[in-house]
């Protein structure tokens, strides 16, 4: 499948969502601090709120300049076998990528939190983003977002602060050493999660006893978040409760589609959530994809789109821009939305035509 990007949904960086980063050499575990300041147009409890996320490595391709930059020293400490976390359980290349923030995070946050210009000629370019913005920022019912591969929690924490209920998921090592500690640091002193169940409060019995540093939903700004383990190589039903899956409104996944070997497992997880969600036809998945060099290990966009088509899902590019990635040049970065609606309509048509055929015979 080929893909042509349209000038009408080009989304350059908007500085209403401020991002900056600093290097704290004394913190050996997580020496970088990514600060995200939410747009001032949000509700008072979120407007202009500055959220800080500790990370092991500096963000990449986000357009953020690190102040007090001592990257060269740091990379010699953190690279390869000298990485101090190398022998931690579950710490392999995919997990290592989660300890830094990737460009899709900033694109998705901007797309959902910043005001969007009307496209000059095609008024409908940002229609879907405006729909999700309305549900997230202006609805009286909080939006239930399931985040896949949330890493250190920058996206999930920011969406929660803006008003969503976010079930933030990743591998165990990220839940307990990345997003978990960051959410605890972000916890608001006031607020109550009572209104946020059952999406965030119901857990499988096995999970309640699992070693997870956060056992309850955490209030952040206008919303609430909870980190929990979801490994795409295992069935979702063994890891998330029925109530959690049932109540999902939107799935988000930033920069999770890059290594070829993890794409099918991630799409299997998305498919299982689509199937089990109560409002199945309305639930969609927003994901970002960045083109890269070194294709081979990394999957191409055309292959990703083919995989989506083979599942009978529909896909739409909602926004894109160019990003500069250190040591890898300039690349296109996209925000896509996938939906199983087409697949469900096709299934219904199949069933109806089967029934008609049976009646006739
Ligand atoms: C490139 S990082 C992106 C992190 C974050 N979303 C961002 O954009 O900054 C990919 C994420 O996918 C997660 N991941 C990789 N394999 C996974 C799996 N099998 N199950 C769940 N998460 C996985 C990693 O742990 C990591 O957090």
From TrEMBL:
- Give the matching Pfam families: Methyltransf_16 (PF10294)
What superkingdom does the record give?
A: Eukaryota
Q: Per its record, how is this protein called by name?
A: Calmodulin-lysine N-methyltransferase
